Amino acid sequence: GDSVTQMEGPVTLSEEAFLTINCTYTATGYPSLFWYVQYPGEGLQLLLKATKADDKGSNKGFEATYRKETTSFHLEKGSVQVSDSAVYFCALIPTGNQFYFGTGTSLTVIP
Amino acid sequence: DADVTQTPRNRITKTGKRIMLECSQTKGHDRMYWYRQDPGLGLRLIYYSFDVKDINKGEISDGYSVSRQAQAKFSLSLESAIPNQTALYFCATSDSGLAGAEQFFGPGTRLTVL
Predict the structure, then answer these.
(1) Are strands A3-6 and A23-26 parallel, antiparallel or unpaired?
(2) Do the chains contact at A46 and B102, CB–CB below 8 Å?
(3) CB < 8 Å to B4, chain A
């Protein structure tokens, strides 16, 4: 069935370090892929998305590229800030129905 | 004002009590969802509704029921709460199932069952 597997956390980085959070998926057809972010005490909000192979989603310095050949959508940021501390969720929507979320990766950035 | 609101934001109750969590949205979306979030398990879908007359079970519907009172309102009920239903509950909405249609989340309800 359809599913998302993402890198387990927690991840702790120093400010200005490079971030990668891995996400791979299993799905039939051509799913759309998403990264959501959850700041402490808040609901999830969309960070970026990609709807077809080779698309790159980007927002707030974060990027992820839809790689169909490796079924991956890894999240990257070149220089993290303390304000990026949050939980990050990879998600997919296979054919226009329900979303499938990964288990979340907690990121803490220390000054 | 927030587009997706949930009430209450926090609730502590006892085993066996009936609990209702409410969700309202002003986005005009047809699709609404209820999820629960548990540490290490991510978000799991409880129920979803694609319009007022449509209700579908999700991955973990046992012990829960829902009511879609109007396009803008979707309530989740626990008929007889048990401690393992202690979790963070989120309501979400989306406009359609077309490619790239994101879900919009409410702020969550933290439920504790003693």
Answers:
(1) antiparallel
(2) yes
(3) 43
- Rounded Cα distance between B4 and B26, Å, is 7
Question: SS3 of B75, please?
Answer: strand
B10 shares contact with chain A (CB less than 8 Å): no
Triad B107, A80, B91: Cα angle to 5°: 15
The residue whose two tokens read 């007022």 is B52
pLDDT in tens, A30-73: 889 999 999 988 899 999 999 989 999 999 999 999 999 999 99
Rounded CA-CA distance B11/B108 in Å is 11
Tell which phi-psi region holds residue B10, choosing left (phi > 0), alpha (psi between -120 and 50) or beta.
beta
Contact A24, A72 (CB under 8 A): yes
Asked if residue A10 has a cis previous peptide bond (ω within 30° of 0), the answer is yes
pLDDT score of B99 more than 80:
no
Whole-number pLDDT of residue B97: 61
